[in-house]
Amino acid sequence: MGKLTAFPVLFTMLMSFRVITAKTKGKNPTAALVAHAQTTSTSLSFFGLVNMVDDPLTVGPEQPSKLVGRAHGFYASSSQEKIGLLCTLNFVFKEGEYNGSSLAVLGHNPTMHVYG
User: DSSP character for 49?
Assistant: First the structure.
């Protein structure tokens, strides 16, 4: 891509797609509890909880929206003080311009943080 042109392209690509919220119950759940610590049930932050996800990756947030891939990964409650998740996702593209590509994302999700 040359110089710093990759970042704007990547940012534009990420802003164009949406991961549908994980479904934990019902037919075909997209998230599953895979581990927890002995103290998770008594922790105010759910420290030690680990969930695996396989969520639809769509062009937009509205339903129906074209499915272009899957978001595979996990999230874990990694803070003992307040709810905060360690999130890892692999965006696996199966349709459209990015078909056959994947993008790995690692980050912190402060789920209860109020912005503004």
Answer: -
